Amino acid sequence: MSETVLVVGAGPTGLSAAAGVASIGKKVILVEKESVLGGAPILSGYAKLVPSGEWAKDAIGRMVKRVEDNANVTIHKSTKVVKVEGEAGNFTVTMSNGQTANVGSIILGTGFTHFDSINKPEWGFGTYEDVLTTTQMEQMVSNGKIACPSDGRVPERVAILLCVGSRDRQIGREWCSKICCTVSTNLAMEIKEISPQTDVFIYYMDIRTFGLYEDKFYWKSQEEYKTKFVKARIAEVTKSADGRLLVKGEDTLVKRPIVIPMDIVVHAIGMDPNEENPELSKVFGIGLEKHGFVDKGEQYTSTFSSTRRGIYVGGAALGPEDIDTSISHGLAMAMRAVGDMNALVQKAA
Amino acid sequence: MAIHEKTLIDADRLISSDKLVVDGVDVSGHWNTMILPRTLKDYDDDFETKIKTYAGAENVHRCWQCGSCTNSCTMYAQNTDFNPRYWIYLTRLGLKDEILKDKEIIWQCVSCNKCTNICPKDVRPEGVMKALSHWIEEEGYGGKSNSTIFDEEFTRQCLERGRIEDSEVMGNFYKNTKQDIVQMALHGWLGIFVARMNKWNELRQGNVIKFLTRTPIFHSLHMGLAMVFKPKTKSWGRTGEVLQQYVKEQKELAHG
Q1: Does residue B21 belong to any structural domain of this protein?
Q2: For the domain that residue A127 is a member of, what is the CATH number?
Q3: At what angle do helices B166-176 and B217-229 cross, to 10 degrees?
Q4: What ipTM is given for this predicted complex?
Q5: Could you say which residues of chain A have pLDDT below 70?
Q6: Rounded mean pLDDT of B233-249?
Q7: Does A128 share its domain with A251?
Q8: What is the pLDDT of residues A266-281, one digit of tens each?
Q9: Are B95 and B116 in the same domain?
Q10: Beta strands in chain A (DSSP E)
């Protein structure tokens, strides 16, 4: 019987879970496959976070420091879990660095993988230098200069294409990635702030800036930053003779084909299941749901359980999720993990 | 293939020629009807800003195309081509040519303001309709109405001389509106008007005084002289020039 908790993944979910468990006074082993902590916001170099507006490196940096400074947390970087044996209350875990550990419960904050725009070749990513993803554009914003990668000119127009790798049966993405609309409206404002002469167009099917993101991001970008919203699903991105990009499609509100010149085209990429989910499924003995995200157990009385007892899962591992919600998932999983271990201890006594 | 249903295509996009050779092949006859592509090529990025300078259209950028304005519109109920939502969208993107296709109906807005009351984003579509109508008129896309042509001639004479000469105003008005004054005199209302002034019967019956008092002899003489010498109002000087400058400045102040 062990009362140590294994946390897999050091993104917002995992960092929150680790801090939560440690704050109750239990030991935590935090395993991260990358060489730095922080997860997607740090690894992909996000700019300002939604909705706080804080720079990712500051906000997530505080979460990392809180865990690093906690004596109850042991951190393994560049490490994966390769084997899990035993049962709830008494798992034996083997790591890729050769070490083993005895843990009472396991929390998975294994997150997601950004959609790879190469899978939508018609939108020009990988073909034209000036076609970027939201993460690349975020990096550009972080560096404080908006310029076309091809020749460094300041773009007159930027087009952001929504639902790239989301809501698309053709490529098996039958889900909404939930946060891209808000991220894109936020990005449009950041671009305008750095480069006031640049006009930003957002090509959308629907706008889903849920909850309080409505006025803070959608309305604000439209009313204060003059972002233009065009209801069109783009058919293809090509290049014109003068080197500018041509966005082709149908403007559904005008009921007319469009071929509009742009200087930068940004793909608002969606959230795929973590590409290592099949491997995680085998190692941890957990089920995946039909899209490939980690499957949930019973929700109402066994919240955040996976399909295996003693293993909990939350954040973007369950499906597209925003950072704030992922952080609450982490804390809720800490509660579940410690609570269930207490119940086992009392039962044993 | 022949075009089976030409009514589905905008008339201005149908082109045909008597003789047509494409890449050395004679395609005259049955094959010579072509359709111009209807692809939108570019946005006029400054158009929205321009329209926003008109009073009432300041919030046009807030529109998110829900269509409440069109759904509530009094005119839309009469004519489904009257679509405020659509025109607001075209305005925002700067698709001017598309707006001009509807220049003959945009002004028909009756200002019932149902759209303004229902709009969830406080766009005030009624104000946008007014702004578009004014823009169409001011840019000269609407073509001049007869009353505008009359006003122009009237104003021109006022500014030049500080006074108008009725017959010159009318004469130029008919000329500028391409109304044939001779035809009107022979067959139209002008003939009847002149006939009523005909007092020869009085003279024939020996009523010389009546004839002289009822025939506008001196008036005609005065009119004829004025048309030749074009006299100005006393001390008119540079007044016209100054007024003209003032009107120009006020217009620029309002709309750039």
Answers
A1: yes
A2: 3.50.50.60
A3: 70
A4: 0.77
A5: none
A6: 91
A7: yes
A8: 999 999 999 999 999 9
A9: yes
A10: 5-8, 28-31, 73-76, 81-87, 90-95, 100-103, 105-108, 112-114, 131-133, 157-164, 199-204, 228-239, 245-251, 256-262, 264-269, 271-273, 311-313
Asked whether residue A58 falls in the same domain as residue A11, the answer is: yes
Same domain, A245 and A133: yes
Mean pLDDT, to the nearest integer, of B56-85?
92
Residue B1 pLDDT exceeds 50:
no
The 3-state DSSP class for residue B80 equals: coil
Q: Tell me if B66 is assigned to some domain.
A: yes
Q: Which of B45, B48, B61 to mutate to test the interface with A (most CBs of A within 10 A)?
A: B61
Residues A106 and A135 placed together within one structural domain of the fold:
no
Looking at beta carbons, which residues of chain B come within 8 Å of A219?
62, 121
Which residue of A lies nearest to B58 if distances are taken between CA atoms? A223
Would you say residue B143 has pLDDT above 90? Answer: no
Is pLDDT above 70 for B131? yes
Question: Is residue A182 located within the same domain as residue A89?
Answer: no
Task: Provide the residue range defining the domain that includes B121.
Answer: 47-138
Show which residues on chain A lie within 8 Å of chain B, measured between beta carbons. 157, 199, 207, 218-219, 222-223, 226, 228-231, 251, 253-254, 256-261
A156 and A287 together in one domain: no
Of A218, A219, A228, the CB nearest to B92: A228
Q: pLDDT-derived band of residue B6, with 50, 70 and 90 as boundaries?
A: low
Number of domains in chain A: 2
A254 chain-B contacts, CB cut-off 8 A? 40, 86, 89-90, 95, 98
Structural domain span for residue A162? 117-270
Residues B21 and B68 in one domain: no
Encode pLDDT of A190-213 as tens digits: 999 999 999 999 999 999 999 999
User: Is residue B5's pLDDT more than 80?
Assistant: no
DSSP bridge partners of A248: A236, A259
Give the nearest chain B residue to A222 (CA atoms).
B62
Give the residue from B9, B43, B47, B49 with the most A CB atoms within 10 Å of its CB, the best one to mutate. B43
DSSP A252: T
Q: Is the pLDDT of residue B20 over 90?
A: no
Which of helix, strand or coil describes residue B221? helix
Contacts of B84 in chain A (CB under 8 A): none
Flag if A207 and B40 touch (Cβ within 8 Å): no
Same domain flag for A138 and A259: yes
Last residue of a domain, one of A220, A247, A270: A270
Strand partners of residue A31: A8, A76
Domain membership of residue B153 (yes or no) is no
- Which residue from A106, A93, A123, A91 is spatially nearest to A248, judged by alpha carbons? A123
How would you classify residue B61: left for phi > 0, otherwise alpha for psi between -120 and 50, otherwise beta? alpha
- Cβ distance A260 to B43 less than 8 Å, yes or no, reads yes
Same domain for B112 and B62: yes
More confident of the two residues A116 and B203: A116
A256 contacts in chain B (CB < 8 Å): 38-40, 98
- C-alpha B92/C-alpha A31 separation (Å) is 51
Q: Do residue A288 and residue A341 come from a single domain? A: yes
Q: Is residue B205 in some structural domain?
A: no
Is there a contact between A229 and B43 if contact means CB atoms under 8 Å apart?
no
Mutate to test the interface with B, among A158, A242, A251, A263 (most CBs of B within 10 A): A251
What pLDDT, on a 0 to 100 scale, did the predictor assign at position B4?
Answer: 61
User: What was the pLDDT predicted at B219?
Assistant: 81
Tell me how far apart the alpha carbons of residues B159 and B237 are, in angstroms, rounded to a whole number: 11
